[in-house]
């Protein structure tokens, strides 16, 4: 008995590209042994490598097929799993979709299937990170009145938090830049667009230089710190609870956690 043929798929890293991989795998009846982004993929000495070019039409057909068989929350969970970005997330998404199309009944509550349980767990982690970013992002005001913030979340939640800030700061120009993934979102008072900046690692993580700060920015930061001092009553301190709600890795986003500036 001959061993099963191994199929290694590569794609451009986009969600549409991953859905195109699903289309091609079903069309060829060649189930993937591994799926990798093309810039990360290593040549394989075993099996065949299939380089998939993103096709929006094919991706749309896969997504429309999923819409007929999945609830909206399950579709969202799949997309959140894509934003999860953990090792082998592509294979996890493929296994889930394959199970959906091969089942005559809904698989959403079939937690005996490993891929169903893992997708739900991944989606919950991403959803939790989304809410934390919405709560913890603090903007600095630049000299040109642009409000600017940097983030480096555990998962790629920038696409998920845009609506929150678009509604909350509808009358202000703002930009949020993910220094971990080197892209950002810019709101110009009308629409949000994604941007990439050619910055060194030091520049990506740096706060606004004094020359670029708005003259009121230091006052805004001090205001946050005073507010935090007033609500953080010593008698009610609960360090364990505080860390559970605001883990240390998020402190870099919070003005109230920055070193105090001495009055001048």
Automatic annotation (TrEMBL):
Residues 88-256 form the DUF4130 domain. InterPro entries: DNA_repair_put, DUF4130. It comes from the Bacteria. NCBIfam families: SAM_7_link_chp. It comes from Pontibacter rugosus. This is TIGR03915 family putative DNA repair protein.
């Amino acid at each position: 008995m001959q061993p099963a043929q191994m199929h290694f798929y590569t794609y451009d890293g986009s969600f549409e590209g991953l859905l195109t991989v699903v289309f091609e795998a079903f069309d060829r009846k060649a189930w993937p042994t591994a799926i990798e982004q093309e810039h990360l993929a290593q040549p394989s000495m075993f099996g065949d490598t299939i380089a998939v070019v993103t096709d929006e039409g094919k991706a749309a057909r896969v997504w429309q097929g999923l819409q007929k068989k999945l609830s909206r929350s399950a579709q969202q969970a799949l997309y959140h799993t894509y934003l999860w970005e953990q090792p082998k997330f592509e294979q996890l998404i493929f296994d889930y979709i394959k199970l959906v199309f091969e089942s005559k009944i809904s698989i959403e509550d079939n937690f005996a299937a490993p891929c169903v349980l893992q997708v739900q767990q991944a989606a919950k982690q991403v959803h939790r990170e989304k809410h934390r970013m919405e709560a913890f992002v603090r903007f600095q005001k630049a000299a040109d009145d642009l409000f600017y913030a940097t983030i480096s979340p555990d998962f790629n939640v920038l696409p998920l938090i845009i609506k929150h800030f678009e509604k909350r700061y509808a009358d202000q120009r703002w930009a949020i830049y993910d220094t971990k993934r080197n892209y950002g979102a810019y709101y110009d008072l009308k629409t949000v667009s994604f941007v990439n900046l050619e910055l060194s690692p030091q520049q990506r993580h740096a706060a606004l230089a004094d020359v670029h700060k708005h003259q009121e920015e230091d006052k805004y930061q001090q205001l946050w710190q005073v507010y935090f001092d007033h609500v953080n009553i010593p008698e009610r301190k609960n360090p364990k609870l505080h860390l559970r709600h605001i883990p240390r890795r998020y402190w870099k986003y919070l003005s109230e956690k920055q070193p105090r500036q001495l009055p001048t």
